[in-house]
From TrEMBL:
One of its GO terms (molecular function) is sequence-specific DNA binding. Pfam families: AraC_binding, HTH_18. This is AraC family transcriptional regulator. Gene3D superfamilies: Homeodomain-like. PROSITE patterns: HTH_ARAC_FAMILY_2. It comes from the Bacteria. Residues 197-295 form the HTH araC/xylS-type domain. Keywords: DNA-binding, Transcription, Transcription regulation. InterPro entries: AraC-bd (IPR003313), Homeodomain-like_sf (IPR009057), HTH-like (IPR037923), HTH_AraC (IPR018060), Tscrpt_reg_AraC-type_HTH (IPR020449).
């Protein structure tokens, strides 16, 4: 049985005109959607960071199996590895950007710079942002300027460093509109958020083998009670539920791949007993793995 995973695209697969290094592109969304093959509307992953700003259109989009309607002024941000799909009723308008981690690595001294932006957390609930005026207009104007620069319409050839500067400016503008700082925000709150980010990175690395809060607490050098309190304070869920949800998310991602049987997916996720995997999935998702697959499998 083939072990081929859900389709994964790089920028060169999708861009009409990437930079020479293939690590950045920006394009009008109407143009981009119009020239893409139909299969990208089914669930797939990217090897790069991906963001979209909608200025028009109707339909929906899904990030890690959570669906949102297309709305004017909405932006969504994705990190490498997330699963998404589109379903447009009216061809959308706006802008789309793809960039790799390497595009900014040599430009910024801090290799973890993107971690400061909540919309790059890699968690679907944080990925979608709706901007109000006048910030929305500022963002759209900046995206138009970036598009002109990328396609050489500004004269003098493409300047990658100018695009890098504009990209960081875009992130800062959007983050300023996500949420105003709380009056009671403290260093302790920031420390909790950094711990949560570290937990999420550890779960991404070890979700197949580590399932107990005590194991992650040990890696974070905190007690299991501290970890549980952290998750309840910031997410409203226990540490065990957060860890379980990460396993469930990966199960759903793999189930969109018709090249793996349910038993193979259970084994891939370290469920030695296929019946246990089926019970686990149905208990927390409400349907069996086969039922979920029938609803979400690529056509």
């Amino acid at each position: 049985m083939s072990k081929e995973k859900i389709p994964i695209y790089n920028i060169a697969n999708l861009a009409a005109q990437p930079l020479d290094s293939g690590d950045f592109m920006i394009e009008s969304l109407t143009s981009y959607v119009g020239r893409q093959p139909l299969h990208i509307h089914n669930a797939h992953r990217h090897t790069f960071y991906h963001l979209v700003c909608f200025t028009g259109g109707k339909g929906s989009h899904s990030i890690d199996f959570i669906q949102w309607p297309v709305e004017v002024g909405q932006l969504y941000f994705m990190v490498p590895g997330q699963v998404h799909s589109w379903n447009f009723d009216v061809r959308p308008e706006g802008y789309i950007i793809h960039f790799t981690e390497g595009f900014l690595r040599g430009f910024l001294l801090d290799p973890n710079y993107l971690d400061r932006f909540s919309f790059f957390s890699g968690h679907a609930a944080d990925c979608v942002v709706r901007l109000a005026s006048p910030l929305r207009e500022k963002v759209v104007t900046l995206l138009a300027e970036m598009t002109d620069e990328f396609h050489g319409h500004s004269g003098g050839g493409v300047n990658p460093d100018l695009l890098r500067t504009q990209l960081v400016q875009l992130f800062l503008l959007v983050q300023s509109g996500v949420a105003a700082p709380r009056a009671d925000s403290t260093a302790a709150t920031t420390q909790k958020q950094q711990l949560l980010l570290a937990l999420r990175k550890l779960m991404d690395q070890h979700y197949k083998t580590l399932r107990r809060p005590s194991e992650y607490a040990g890696l974070l050098y905190i007690t299991p009670n501290h970890l549980n309190s952290l998750c309840r304070d910031l997410l409203g869920r226990s540490a065990g539920e957060v860890i379980r949800d990460r396993v469930l998310l990966e199960a759903k991602r793999l189930l969109t791949n018709a090249g793996m049987t349910v038993a193979e997916i259970g084994y891939e996720l370290n469920f030695q007993d296929n019946s246990y995997f089926n019970r686990f999935f149905k208990k927390y998702e409400g349907v069996t793995p086969d039922e979920f697959r029938r609803k979400n499998v690529m056509k």
